[in-house]
Structure formats: structure tokens, C-alpha cells
Amino acid sequence: IAMYRAKALGKGRVDIFEPEMHARVEKTTRIEHDLNTVLTRNELEIYYQPIVNLQSMTIEGFEALLRWKHPELGNIPPDDFIGIAEGSGIIHHIGQWVLYNACEQIVKWNRLYGGESEFFISVNLSARQVSHSNIIPLIRDMLEGAAFNPAKLHLEVTETLLITDQETAKRNMAELKQLGVQLSADDFGKGYSSLTYLQNYSFNSMKIDKEFVQDMETGGKGKRLVSSLVRLARDFDLSVIAEGVENEQQLRHLQTFSCHYGQGFYLCPPLPSEDIDVILIKGGHLDFPKLQLCNPFL
Ligand code: C2E
Ligand code: MG
Ligand code: MG
Ligand code: MG
Q: What ligand has the least distance to the C-alpha of 270?
């Protein structure tokens, strides 16, 4: 299509667009190819971003975020390979890997630093995973094998992703709920049918998309939009998490709106597990003032 457009724009344009397009196609093909061996070559890593209770300013859980350290292409962000992995079906293997490793990690942190209230782990599921027949036994086996408290596993699902195979997705979501895990509506508000979405699936929590959180500063309707979303979540008995908290002002606004949880660079960026270990060993204090662990004895 890009080529076609370039041509339509005139002869000279083709030379400008073609190399760029060529490079992009080549990179996509390379990623597609290398994804097949990404697990055996051990190139994936999970980063963890703390999810902070905005009233007590304590860490209550973590979101698992995938990182690919490619030996030649460098760090490839998930947005550049998750879509491709979905297309090839390798997403099922990657998704299973993330689930097992993230849960193993949280069990470890809970044993070492969890205290009475255990941390939860939030894992992103892609649409292909949610509508796959294998997802229920996969998660059931994982929960049983790890003796994992199901309520401490939060599964994040993005709305736009559920549109394709609605019936299966709906059934699987209901069955996941039966297993006792928590369902989280990721990137809420970005899609075009958010309200139906709340009605059709029984979510436990809503994550307000970072775009809205960032728009609070620009004045205008940004702040009112976020406070409405928080109220909407509360009316639906959902807990609400604001994504992309990047500065103190945003944090203050969210606290004023009684938003339950926040996540963002201002609180803590996604970090490799060793760096989270360092934070937890120190008692959960981040660079952010007054942030502490749930466990008062640490
Ligand atoms: P997401 O689920 O919405 O995850 C939040 C994204 O916001 C992450 O991007 C995170 O690094 C970023 N973020 C956190 N705090 C801030 C902030 O203060 N400001 C800004 N601007 N961004 C912030 P990341 O890690 O690049 O991941 C992108 C997306 O890739 C995720 O969006 C998620 O949908 C997907 N993804 C990541 N890991 C997995 C995975 O294991 N499986 C699947 N299926 N998708 C994943
Ligand atoms: Mg997410
Ligand atoms: Mg997501
Ligand atoms: Mg999100």
C-alpha cells in the first residue's frame, strides 16, 4: 500500500519511500523468523513495574512486561513483536513462558517479602491467547502446579483485541473467572465500545489508558474525563488503575479523584527482577518519597 501511495504521489516520491519501506519489511521478516527461536535462545526477559496503592503509597503488585534482547537488533519493544507473534501462533508459547515465569517470580517475592498481604502479578494476554481453547487448562495447570493463589493472578486484556472472536473470548473469560483469577480491562477508553465491553465481560479492574492520564495536564476536559472514568469504575465495582503516571501533579489529581492504584515512570519504571529485588530488600522504598511496602515490618 505504501508503495502504491508513493507512486500515486508522483514519480520522484518512489525513491524516497522505497528504501524505508524495504527496510521495514526486512525487519518484520527478520523478527518473524527470529521469533521462532527466541525461547530456545533465551532472549526474552520479563521486566516488572510496581502497581502502587495511591492512598497508602505502598506497592501491592507488579505488571509483567516482556522485553526482547536481540543479539543484533538490540532491544525490541513488545509493540514491535507481539503483533507478529500473534500472526504466527508463537504467541501461545511466549504467552505460556511469560505466565509461568512471572508467577514463579511473584511466588518468590511473596515468600521473601510478601508478609500477610501478598503481592499480585498482572500479566497481559493477547487476543489470540484469550480465544484459544488451550487457555483454560494452561492457566489451571499453572495455578495448581505452583500452588498459586488464583486471586493474585490478574489477567490484562485489551478491548480492541476481543472484537475478532467474541463468542469464544466471552466463554473463555467467564471460565477464567471461574478459576478465581482477576480480569483487568487494559487501556480502557481507547477503544470504541468501552461501555458495552464493561457490560459483556465481568472485569475486576479497569486500567485507565495512559493517554488520558497524560491529557490531564493540558487543562480542558482532561481532568474531568479521568475523574469520570474513576467514578465509572467505582459504579461498576471495579478497582481502578491509572497507567502512565509521569509526574507529581498527575499523582495528586488521581489521589483527589480517589483512584485506587497508579503505575508509571514517576512512581517506578518497569525494571528487571534484580532491580525490584533491590527495592524490596530495602523495604520497598522507591526514589519516590514515602513509598513503602505493604508489610509494615520491613
Ligand atoms: P500495556 O499493557 O498498556 O503496558 C503498559 C505500557 O506502558 C508498557 O509499555 C510500559 O512500559 C509503559 N509505561 C509504564 N509507565 C509509563 C509511563 O509513565 N509513561 C509512559 N509513556 N509509558 C509507561 P511496554 O512495556 O512497551 O509494552 C507495550 C505493550 O505491549 C503493553 O501495553 C502490552 O499490551 C504489550 N505487552 C507487554 N508485555 C506483554 C506480554 O507478555 N504479552 C502480551 N500479549 N502483550 C504484552
Ligand atoms: Mg497492560
Ligand atoms: Mg496490554
Ligand atoms: Mg495499558
A: 1
Which ipTM did the prediction report? Answer: 0.98
Q: Ligand 1, residues 62, 65, 76: which to mutate, most atoms within 8 A of Cβ?
A: 65
DSSP letters for 180-211: T-EEEEEEETSSS-HHHHHHHS--SEEEE-HH
**Chain mean position to CA 235:** 23
124 lines ligand 1 (CB under 6 A): yes
Whole-prediction pTM: 0.90
Q: Are 249 and 228 in contact (CB under 8 A)?
A: no
- Tell me the pLDDT tens digit for each residue of 99-148: 999 999 999 999 999 878 899 999 999 988 998 989 999 999 999 988 88
* Residues within 5 Å of ion ligand 4, judged at the Cβ atom: 186-187, 243
Q: State whether the beta carbon of 86 lies less than 6 angstroms from ligand 1.
A: no
End-to-end Cα spacing for the chain: 58
